[in-house]
Amino acid sequence: MSSATITELPGRDAAREVIAAPIRAHLAVKNISGSDLARRIGLTQPQISRRLSGRLPFTSDDLNAIAAELDLTVVELIQMPKPSITGGGTRLVGVGTTIHRLVGRTGLEPVTDGL
Predict the structure, then answer these.
(1) Which CATH entry fits the domain spanning 12-82: 1.10.260.40, 3.40.30.10, 3.40.50.1000, 3.10.310.30?
(2) What's the CA gap between 57 and 38, in Å, rounded?
(3) What is the pTM of this model?
């Protein structure tokens, strides 16, 4: 009798990250935490955390629920949001698979452009 080993296919984690990264970015843009999203779509915090980190895949039901909650289509959900910055707004910048939020001027800083 032999035992079988289940092995992850190469690239599966990368494929999960391709889906998870834009979802994390959309959450950041809308200032929604993973815990809040989990509560809104009926998942537990650990379940959404595993999906947002790429450790577990999102189901089609997950993607539909998240898209509806964020007022996006599923296609928009899995695409990185377009950066926008106005006045004291914020902008998302991707570095590798990490999303950074850049904060714009609030009007109190001295203008140093062109010096």
Answers:
(1) 1.10.260.40
(2) 15
(3) 0.66
